[in-house]
């Protein structure tokens, strides 16, 4: 029963870490990456649709993204969504494709992005700790209902804490790596 709870916790915590990594992939460093825009929500026939479902995104040059819509009618919507996003990029639309030129990052912008990474890092830690809190509550309920002994509860809480520490260390490593990437000139 405790092992099942720990397995569930590991799956949920890894989900939080995966979500954190996906989140960070959208934060731009000095290089162009399709991950920067692929999850942008585009208004397409009245429904919000991720850009990756509406267009192919390529990197023809290190500081440029090329967005080629599958349907030319979605070009304006894609352009509007890019302008409205927090990316701070101006799309160049030639009627068939959209080119996004990524300017070099200023020192100020790098520090701003580093703060964003720190904030997301803390959010990921909190979500891992929330999983731990929920599972400890479950374990205490098992003990209260006499499904596990007090010793099993203590052992389960210790194992859960070790798992939590391991996951938070993982989150910190990912965040540090992203910060180094951002601060790299």
Brief summary:
This protein is of the alpha+beta class and 185 residues long. It has helices spanning 2-25, 75-84, 107-144, 150-183; strands at 41-44, 47-50, 55-61, 64-69, 91-93, 98-101. It starts with a helix and ends with a helix.
Write the layout of secondary structure elements.
Elements: H1 2-25, E1 41-44, E2 47-50, E3 55-61, E4 64-69, H2 75-84, E5 91-93, E6 98-101, H3 107-144, H4 150-183
Antiparallel strand pairs: 1-2, 3-4, 4-6, 5-6
Written description of the protein model:
There is one protein chain. The longest helix is centred in the C-terminal third of the chain and has 38 residues. The chain is α+β, with helices and mostly antiparallel strands and about 180 residues long. The model has no long low-confidence stretch (mean pLDDT about 90). Helix 1 runs antiparallel to helix 3, helix 1 runs parallel beside helix 4 and helix 3 packs antiparallel against helix 4. It has two domains: about 100 residues, Topoisomerase I, Chain A, domain 4 (Orthogonal Bundle), CATH 1.10.132.20; about 70 residues, Gyrase A, domain 2 (2-Layer Sandwich).
Distance between the termini: 51 Å
Helix-strand sequence = HEEEEHEEHH
Strand count: 6
* Major sheet size, sense and barrel closure: 4 strands, antiparallel
Predict the CATH topology of the largest domain. Answer: Topoisomerase I, Chain A, domain 4
**How many structural domains?**
2
CATH architecture of the largest domain: Orthogonal Bundle
Instruction: Give the class-level CATH name of the largest domain.
Output: Mainly Alpha
Shape: elongated
Overall mean confidence score, pLDDT: 88
Q: Strand order, main sheet: write it out.
A: 3-4-6-5
């Amino acid at each position: 029963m405790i092992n099942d709870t720990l397995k569930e916790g590991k799956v949920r915590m890894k989900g939080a870490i995966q979500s954190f990594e996906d989140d960070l992939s959208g934060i731009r460093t000095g290089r162009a990456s399709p991950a920067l825009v692929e999850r942008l929500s585009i208004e397409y026939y009245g429904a919000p649709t991720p850009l990756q479902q509406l267009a192919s995104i390529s990197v023809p040059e290190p500081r440029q993204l090329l967005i080629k819509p599958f349907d030319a009618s979605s070009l304006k919507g894609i352009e509007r969504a890019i302008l409205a996003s927090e990316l701070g990029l101006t799309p160049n639309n030639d009627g068939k494709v959209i080119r996004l030129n990524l300017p070099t990052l200023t020192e100020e912008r790098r520090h701003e992005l580093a703060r964003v990474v720190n904030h997301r890092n803390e959010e990921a830690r909190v979500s891992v700790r929330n999983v731990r809190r929920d599972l400890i509550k479950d374990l205490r309920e098992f003990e209260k209902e006499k499904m596990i002994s007090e010793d099993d509860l203590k052992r389960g809480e210790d194992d859960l804490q070790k798992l939590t520490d391991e996951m938070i260390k993982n989150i910190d490593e990912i965040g540090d790596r992203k910060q180094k990437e951002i601060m790299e000139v």
